[in-house]
Amino acid sequence: MPFWAVAGVVGFSPLLYLGLRYSTAVNCALIQGFSPLITALIAGLIIQEPVTRRQQL
After folding, report:
1. Is residue 51 domain-resident?
2. How many domains does the chain have?
3. Contact (CB, 8 A) for 31 and 12
4. Which residues contact 28 (CB under 8 A, 6 or more apart)?
5. What average pLDDT score do residues 22-40 get?
6. 34 belongs to a structural domain
7. For residue 29, what is the DSSP state?
8. Residue 50 pLDDT > 70, yes or no?
């Protein structure tokens, strides 16, 4: 499990920016803008982490 945590942290940014390099500016903005929302949805739906009012802001 620690390996996957480190691999996710280390591999996320380079792979994200490599993918965005071949995309349009609109797609890049949408991906960056919706990233926190998607993270909160995954946390709430999959691992049942409560999302507080403050986090919704």
Report:
1. yes
2. 1
3. no
4. 20
5. 88
6. yes
7. H
8. yes
Look at residue 30 and tell me if it is in a domain. yes
CA–CA separation, 57 and 50 (whole Å): 14
Q: Which domain holds residue 31?
A: 24-57
Q: Which amino acid is at 31?
A: I
Question: What is residue 57's predicted lDDT score, i.e. its pLDDT?
Answer: 66
Alpha-carbon distances, residue 28 vs 1, 10, 22, 53 (angstroms) = 30, 20, 10, 27
User: Structure tokens of 3?
Assistant: 């390996």
Q: What is the pLDDT of residue 26?
A: 93
Does residue 32 lie within any of the structural domains? yes
